[in-house]
Specification:
This protein is α/β, with parallel strands linked by helices. The protein has a 9-stranded mixed sheet with strand order 1-2-6-5-4-3-7-8-9, with helices on both faces. Strands 10-12-11 form a 3-stranded antiparallel sheet. Helix 9 links the parallel strand 4 and strand 5. Helix 8 runs parallel beside helix 9 and helix 16 packs across helix 18. The longest helix is centred in the first third of the chain and has 17 residues. It is elongated and about 85 Å long. 43% of the residues are buried.
Length: 373
């Protein structure tokens, strides 16, 4: 795997600290000077010969270059923190950098990552939505993430409460891969209750952020995070969101990046569905009612990607199989399940718990249950 050298990474680290030197200016400088070290060591007049590099920016670069010793100590501390958290840096110029993300406008030049990016992740769909979903929203997020992940599609989301967390969990339970893009440092887990799922994602996908270790979540971080969520995916599915929700911003980024946008229609009286219904009404999103709609639009053939593990279903005992066959994506009350299967409610609960442990069923509030596959 080709990576830029440690020396070049150090000089990129210095340049990344220069206020006002964004990706666009950095790409221009690299094109002119050929290496980050040459940029750091260049004189102010040479720097200013580059378009968009004015006297202020060139002065900041020279000021940074005069503090190499300070930056060297900070760079060593960064590497120690990353090592402690089993994380690392990947840059735009490394082979591991996601190809889809390279294609967006001004992609982040540095990413902090825990886990791994693989070729499989080139077939990715982002699933986003409100932090306060309805039972319907949770069910649909779980359904779509489960079936897409089972078909070999990597699920990308933002690790937030609500739809994001449901999507990550469902992908993992289906044995699929998932990528979480955070608005905080790689060592800052937010929300804190997601610590367990955070570690599972790192083992079956990746945690990604453009913010350095120690960065705490801040409102201004999340819009920048959202452009990466959409940038990592072939398309974005919006499950539930208000008209001004963050998921609407992710959808907007997806459109700007020339990616597909999908939306699940919702209850017209529910505020959580205002955003999705608006996207559909304005023709900015394709109305989808099943995961196959997304696979068809993106031309992803589930027959050529990872299939759901049917062996697990085949190994169910007679009662578990009977209950599983009675379930669907639509939730059912335990009394209905007992009536449909002819199995006592108490026994049904035991078998449903087993199915839940196997990732084949999900319990919802009010003793309601639905299938996961």
């Amino acid at each position: 795997m080709n990576r830029i050298s440690g020396d070049e990474l150090f000089h990129l680290f210095i340049l990344n600290k220069v206020e006002g030197l964004g990706p666009g200016k950095l790409f221009q400088l690299l094109s002119k000077f050929g290496s980050f070290e040459e940029i750091v060591n260049a004189g102010r007049n040479r720097l200013m010969q580059t378009e968009t590099i004015n006297e202020v920016i060139s002065g900041r670069i020279k000021e940074a270059s005069s503090k190499k010793d300070q930056y060297d100590a900070a760079f060593q501390r960064l590497n120690e923190t990353l090592s402690k958290n089993n994380a690392r840096i990947i840059t735009y110029w490394d082979d591991e950098y996601p190809e889809l993300l390279k294609r967006i406008y001004l992609p982040p030049v540095v990413l902090y990552i825990k886990g791994s990016i693989t070729d499989i992740d080139s077939n990715a769909v982002a699933i986003v939505g409100t932090r306060l979903p309805s039972a319907y929203g949770r069910m649909q997020a779980t359904r779509f993430a489960s079936e897409l992940a089972a078909a070999g599609v990597t699920i990308v989301s933002g690790l937030a409460r609500g739809i994001d967390s449901e999507s990550h969990r469902a992908a993992l339970k289906s044995g699929g891969r998932t990528i979480a893009v955070t608005g905080s440092g790689i060592d800052v887990i937010y929300p804190p209750e997601n610590k367990k799922i955070y570690n599972h994602i790192a083992d079956n996908g990746a945690i990604i952020t453009e913010y350095p270790p120690g960065t705490f979540p801040d409102a201004q971080n999340f819009p920048r995070r959202n452009r990466i969520i959409s940038g990592l995916a072939l398309g974005t599915l919006v499950v539930e969101t208000k008209k001004n929700g963050g998921a609407m911003q992710t959808a907007s980024y997806s459109l700007d990046q020339n990616r597909e946008v999908f939306a699940i229609p919702g209850n017209v009286t529910s505020p959580q569905s205002d955003g999705t219904n608006k996207l559909i009404r304005k023709g900015e999103a394709e109305l989808v009612t099943r995961p196959d709609d997304i696979l068809a639009t993106l031309r992803l053939d589930p027959g050529q990607t990872k299939k759901a593990d049917r062996k697990m279903i085949e190994e169910l005992n007679l009662f578990e199989q009977k209950i599983f066959e009675s379930l669907s994506a639509e939730s059912k009350h335990i009394d209905v399940i007992a009536s449909d299967t002819g199995i006592a409610v108490a026994d049904c609960l035991v078998y449903l718990l087993t199915l839940e442990f196997k990732g084949l069923a999900r319990q919802l509030p009010g003793k309601m249950f639905s299938a996961m596959m």
